[in-house]
Design goal:
The protein has 8 helices and 3 strands; from the N terminus they run E-H-H-H-H-H-E-H-E-H-H. By secondary structure, it is mainly alpha-helical. The protein has a 3-stranded parallel beta sheet with strand order 1-2-3, with no helix packed on it. Helix 1 (15-33) packs across helix 4 and helix 1 packs antiparallel against helix 5. The protein starts with a strand and ends with a helix.
């Protein structure tokens, strides 16, 4: 099961480079903001700002979880090597090597990897026979936006 996986842009889609630039900028901002994470998420406006690129619905997410997420993302040392690799090598998937059932879940309000353009190669080339679930009005992280529905989608798929 995959939740809005990266790398599915159609070849030549310039939004791929824009997304990688965005990830680099956000990592730099997160690194600066992480020491003040609790203060940032203490207000509804701060929680909206902290989640604006990953969720459509943020009001129910505990401030403590968001602060923890900010600190965790800021401490991730794989971000820049991954971005560099993606710029150098591009994205690929050995779809022939995927022999298990696959479910892909994507939110229509995903601001990081917009539906459907960021899913083009998954849908058309790599995994066209996947079980596709598109969630209206949901952002990049359905596990944060609609945690119970996302858990049900995972359980329903894995219990087959």
């Amino acid at each position: 099961m995959a939740l809005a996986p990266a790398g599915g842009w159609a070849r030549g889609d310039t939004s791929e480079s824009e997304a990688l630039d965005h990830f680099a900028t956000m990592q730099e901002l997160l690194t600066t903001a992480a020491p003040q994470a609790e203060a940032i998420v203490a207000s509804p406006n701060g929680r909206r700002r902290a989640t604006e690129y990953i969720t459509a619905n943020f009001e129910h997410i505990p401030a403590e979880l968001l602060a923890h997420q900010m600190r965790g993302a800021a401490s991730c040392d794989a971000v820049f090597p991954l971005i560099d690799h993606a710029r150098r090598e591009g994205w690929s998937l050995d779809a022939a090597g995927v022999s298990c059932p696959v479910r892909i879940v994507w939110g229509t309000d995903d601001r990081l990897l917009p539906w459907p353009s960021a899913a083009a190669r998954y849908r058309e080339d790599w995994l066209p026979h996947a079980d596709w679930i598109v969630l209206d009005g949901i952002g990049h992280c359905p596990q944060l936006d609609v945690p119970l529905e996302t858990a049900q989608l995972i359980l329903g798929f894995t219990s087959r």
